[in-house]
Amino acid sequence: MDSINDMAVHGHDLWCATRRGILRWDTSNMTCHTYTVDGEELWVNAVEVDTMGTVWCGSYKGLHRFDGKSWKIYTMADGLADSFVTRIACGADGELWIGTENGLSRFDGKTWISYTANDVLPKKGITALAVGPDRCVWVGTSGDCGSGGGLSRFDGETWSTFTIRDGLLDMYVSSIAVTPDNEVWAGSFYTGGVTLKMGNEWTRFTTDAGFTRFNSVFDAAAAPDGSLWFGTYHGIFRYRDERWTHYTIMDGLKLDAVYSLGVDSTGEVWVGTKGGIARFDSEQWQWFNTGLGPGGDSIDSIAIAPDGIVWCTTGTGGISRFDGTTWKTYTTADGLMKNTPLTILIGPDGVVWSRFSNGMSRFDGTSWKDFSIDDKLTYKKFDWFSTIIDHEGCFWFCTIEGISRFDFREWRTFTTGDGITPGAQYVLSAGSDGAIWAELWQSGGFMTFRDGEWISFNPEGLPEGYFVGYLAFAPSGAQWLTLYRKSASYPNDAGVARFFNGEWTNYLFGEGPLGTRVLSKAFTTDGSLWIGTDAGLSRFDGKTWTGYTPENGLASGYVRTIVPAPGGEIWIGTADGVSRLVIDNPAGVTGTLKSPEITILGNNPNPFNASTLIELELPSPGTVELVIYDITGRKIRNLSPGRLPAGRNAVWWNGRDNSGAPVASGIYINRLRCGKLAVSGRMALVK
How far is it, in rounded angstroms, from Cα 55 to Cα 6? Predict the structure, then answer.
């Protein structure tokens, strides 16, 4: 699902700025339409609708105007202060105010006037913008460590700037809302909280309102009932009748990080996150799927049904399906056992199944139904490390008691007497000849089930100091395995190995596939091997290795699953969305970083100019190292924040190197490390 960067409400239409263009959500009939900007899927930072109903949106390429039929773009050549547009606001008189990375511009439909840091503004980058009922323009800029930035006001003749000395909570103002009574609310980026300015009086709201340090306030909105809404990194805050209410995922939000807010003509509040769009009807949150992408970005499992429909799990967003045109997402509201499916499975009969930590659900064509199991397997608590469906449609499970098989009539469990170790974590796979293989995870031991019994398979001929795991079968009969380097503490991925006709051929990282960790494997009908790693997608055609990364269009470099489809397509599930690759055009990936232990959720904005917020998630408290590299691997900046709490965190980068000098435009890598765990993400700096 695309991140909703900004919202604007006009009548029944809710306009949303996303990284692929503009969404128009008709709240009267709950339909959604997407518009690309000038035919291009462009990252849009801001959207506004003027008094005439014209839609304006800002990207890093300029200010785009949409009259309902066609697009027109304005850039610096037309008088815009800078082509990188960050914020847009419209006054009651129809004047348009445009915040950019190099100042503020005013446009009355004919004439441009710009204001920059060289004359009236404390900083050139505009981070927040609003126009009050009295036509005063309020501007937020970003201050570094208490210097520069602040809250500025333009009354049509004179500029005034307010800082911490005046009562402002933070020199980095990230959001502004102005009420009908001209109360000004300024959201803080660093400190975590908001400031209220009423005339000459200032009031700060921080921990007393439930805000925590570094809880950035991304957006603010005033509702007709007098309530104030604030979208933050840790949920939504509402201020009404001098009382604060805090909403999180525990109250119905799909994700805590809320980047945008909007209030429609009925007073209902709309919020935009990386997980979709939600509406608050004064009692509960209702989520809507736009049909433009899966219900979440973390794609752990993909399966393709005989009718060509693509199914995928989406982390915490339920299960999504794509029929070639539209995405549809199923959640607990549709009968799904949980919104956190682990695996999607499709049997030979085309029936769709999903595995959860405590059971299974079956799709009957309309809704999901829990799969009934006997008390014996209930006792096992469905603690499965691996689940597959064989060629006959039977389920195979690795449980805490051993390996179990279910043919929809009876269960059979294989344990110690069959050569299976209870409690061991086996990875199951089905060979092209129908045999079932069980790999003892990260130890190199294999078992194969043939003719009713388990037989040990101990590969010989491996180089000293290595062992293999994670089995995949090529159409030629060759067996491809992940090659591990033995370690006293934790096995390290070394590459992949091919076992064919009794001989081993090894392809180490740096000599073959991209990355440092093998996450998935698949084969296409031409015999090519495709490998998903923590640095992209690799293809081996029997002679040559070819790599595909986000620069080719891949949604993320962290490739969790690969599924070939009929018709020469490959579906790729990543940590940041799903991609579709057309094999006859292997240079381009179409379609839309997390490890299983630590996560880089992305950076916002991206692309960015001057500064960006790198979002990360930790499963437990720990000391974090975050380092920025350029595309050549040269270390640029050490942002290591030290020890961070569990959950979502954020680290700000001002686009400068360790010496304090601004870095050039280009692709940069952020590398997050916590203990022995590490993961990387990519950022684009555009000036």
Answer: 13
660 part of a folded domain: yes
Q: Is the model's pLDDT at 679 over the cut of 80? A: no
Most confident of 41-55, 137-151, 411-425: 41-55
Neighbours of 587 (CB within 10 A): 9
From residue 323, how far is each of 309, 333, 668 by CA, in Å? Answer: 5, 21, 35
Paired tokens of 186: 């300024």
Q: Among 54-63, 542-551, 575-584, 675-684, which range has the highest average pLDDT?
A: 54-63
571 and 607 housed in the same domain: no
Asked if residue 397 belongs to a domain, the reply is no
What residues contact 464, with CB distance under 8 A and at least 6 apart? none
- Indicate the pLDDT class of residue 625, thresholds 50, 70 and 90: confident
Q: Is residue 260 part of a domain?
A: no
Total domains in the fold of the chain: 2
The two structure tokens encoding residue 633? 């691997």
**Full-model pTM:** 0.60
Structural domain harbouring 635? 599-685
Residue environment code for 588-616, b if the CB has 16+ CB neighbours within 10 A, otherwise e: ebebbbbbeebbbbbbbbbbbbbbbbbbb
In this structure, what token pair is assigned to residue 132? Answer: 């009050």
List phi, psi (to 5°) of 379. -60, -30
For residue 615, CA distances in Å to 4, 631, 683 come to 15, 20, 12
What's the CATH number where 498 sits? 2.130.10.10
Last residue of a domain, one of 574, 591, 608: 591
- Per-residue confidence (pLDDT) for residue 369, from 0 to 100: 83
Q: Are residues 634 and 662 in the same domain?
A: yes
Q: Which residues of 642-679 are buried (b: 16+ CB within 10 A; e: fewer)?
A: eebeeebbbbbbebbeeeeeebeeeebbbbbbbeeebb
Angle (CA) 42 47 51, round 5°: 140
The rounded distance, in Å, linking the Cα atoms of 511 and 281 is 57
pLDDT of 500 over the 70 cut: yes
Structure tokens at 533: 């790693």
Q: How far apart are CA 154 and CA 142, in angstroms?
A: 17
294 or 236: whose pLDDT is higher?
236
